[in-house]
Design goal:
9 helices, Aminopeptidase, signal, N-acetylmuramoyl_amidase_3, Immunoglobulin-like, 33% helix, hydrolase, MurNAc-LAA_cat, binds zinc ion
Length: 366
């Protein structure tokens, strides 16, 4: 019996794909492969992608949350097994293969960029007395203050709140906070101008790490009844009552309707695109991180995280969200939004959520 238990134990261990080892300064992923298996490996932004042929694995979605790795996902599609690993900020990937006639083992180590210890015996240039530390690649966050210029966004006539002014002020406060944490910030607008939604979306390219669009909500009437904070990631419209809001945030009127149609078909396409799905999963994770932090810091009503076809988010290949930080036309919330101290609280909470999501704190501690 004991032997059987041992065999079963070994069998289960062998089934784990990958096996994950947490070490003091690195996370190790071990892939046990048949000798005939092949694989490719690539990194884009903070995602490490591995594509295997000739292996058997089960679909998985696992949180790791080590200092180096946030999570990984195993996607099985026919004969191909793909593993997507979301790395924390500033990580490097090293791999090696151990091989004999019966088996092949791929070992992938994820270490902080600054702990670069190059074990390969390559000839090196004459060593300086104190070798300079490799510079930490700077994280870049795109902040999009909603509306601007000819487009005021939501206007609370009874509260005196104009969305475009609030979104710009909160975004600039968040910029100051993040820059102080060593994160580079790109604003889609820094004054009262109107970049098109395409201009804004284009700034969320894969050289950036994250995109966050800041908006203020509104409801019927003034004062209106609705209040609270909600955060969105991109996806199909599951809740039809959001359609009016989505059209408004997509530019309003005929333009808003047209762009909403485009965004909805992009959402349908994304549903069958593995990379887009993976990015949406990260975006959802970011949305929950931001939403939690905002509600905690402000005590505002928690309207939750939802998905919706916001045009500005539709092509993002980096985690991208849209945050509605409150209602312009709610009597109490409108008054709070008018208060610079409250806007600072909101900006900091979003900034903290962003640094925590990107793993900035854990890198800085080293
Ligand atoms: Zn808006």
């Amino acid at each position: 019996m004991r032997l059987l238990a041992l065999v079963l134990l070994l069998a289960t261990q062998a089934l784990a794909f990958p096996r994950v080892g947490l070490h003091e300064n690195f996370t190790r992923l071990v892939f046990d492969l048949p000798p005939s298996a092949s694989y490719e490996m690539s990194t884009e932004g903070q995602t490490l992608a591995l594509r295997f042929r000739g292996v058997k694995a089960e679909a998985l979605d696992e949180s790791v949350n080590s200092d180096q790795v946030a999570s990984y996902q195993v996607v099985v599609s026919g004969a191909v097994v793909e593993v997507f690993v979301r790395l924390k900020a500033g990580m490097r990937v090293q791999s090696s293969v151990l091989e004999d006639q019966q088996s092949k083992r791929l070992i992938v180590d994820i270490t902080p960029e600054e702990a670069r210890a190059d074990p390969s015996p390559q000839p090196k240039p004459a060593p300086a007395k104190s070798p300079p530390k490799p510079a930490q690649p700077k994280l870049v966050v795109v902040i999009d203050p909603g509306h601007g210029g000819r487009d005021p966004g939501a206007v609370g006539l009874c509260t005196g709140i104009t969305e475009k002014l609030i979104t710009l002020d909160v975004s600039r406060r968040m910029e100051r906070y993040l820059e102080a944490q060593g994160v580079q910030v790109v604003l889609t607008r820094s004054g009262d101008t109107y970049p098109t939604l395409d201009d804004r979306a284009q700034m969320a390219d894969s050289k950036k790490n994250l995109f966050i669009s800041v908006h203020v909500n509104s409801s019927q009437g003034c004062p209106g009844q609705a209040q609270g904070i909600e955060t969105y990631y991109f996806g199909e419209l599951l809740n039809p009552s959001l359609l009016e809001q989505v059209i408004r945030e997509n530019g309003g009127g005929a333009v808003g309707q047209q762009l909403t149609r485009v965004a909805r078909s992009a959402a349908q396409r994304a549903a069958s695109d593995i990379l887009a799905q993976l990015n949406l999963r990260f975006s959802r994770e970011l949305a929950y991180t931001v939403q939690r932090r905002l509600v905690q810091a402000t005590g505002a009503v928690d309207r939750g995280v939802q998905q919706a076809p916001f045009y500005v988010l539709r092509n993002a290949r980096i985690p991208a969200i849209l945050v509605e930080i409150g209602f312009a036309n709610h009597a109490t919330e409108g008054r709070r939004l008018a208060d610079p101290a409250y806007r600072e609280t909101i900006a900091r909470a979003m900034g903290q959520a962003v640094t925590s999501f990107l793993g900035v704190g854990s890198v800085a501690q080293r």
